[in-house]
Amino acid sequence: MSLFEVGRLCLKIAGRDAGRKCVIVENVGEGYVVVDGSTRRKKVNIKHLEPLSEMVELKDKAGHEDVKKAFEKLGLKVWDKKSKKVSERPKKVKKVKPKKEVKAKPKKEAAKEEVNKETSLKKEKAEKKPEAKTETKAEKEVEAPMEA
């Protein structure tokens, strides 16, 4: 017989629930038990428990409600899962932008306009090119002062 049998009250000495009382609900295997009570219900290493002298009558693999009743008889608090309160969030309002009206053109006309634009752009570029000036000898002589 082990000290760690079903119904034994223990004190958690390590971990998140250290300092809280629990009861052994199930013996899992070598060195591990399942505990419940003022702690979260979970599998625990027996090295993290300190057995107390008190025993509670529980059946093997007892549910949380059974443990809760036994702890209330002893006057101990039981860890209960707190449900999260979800606050109501304001609904998002979609902003509607007014759409600009675009007249749909048939595909053939749109293609013709694109070709016309391309050719007109080419013509404009050609017209804008500055023509290279070629100075004649007479112009050069006028610009340069005569040396005598």
Outline the structure in words.
27% of the residues lie in helices and 21% in strands. The chain is of the alpha+beta class and 148 residues long. The chain has a domain of 67 residues: SH3 type barrels. A five-stranded antiparallel sheet has the order 4-3-2-1-5. A hairpin with an 8-residue loop joins strand 1 and strand 2. The chain is rod-shaped. The model has no long low-confidence stretch (mean pLDDT 79).
Secondary-structure map:
Layout: E1 8-12, E2 21-29, E3 32-37, E4 42-45, E5 49-55, H1 64-74, H2 107-128, H3 137-143
Antiparallel strand pairs: 1-2, 1-5, 2-3, 3-4
Short description:
By secondary structure, this protein is of the alpha+beta class.
What are the salient characteristics of this protein?
alpha+beta, 3 helices, 5-stranded antiparallel sheet, 148 residues
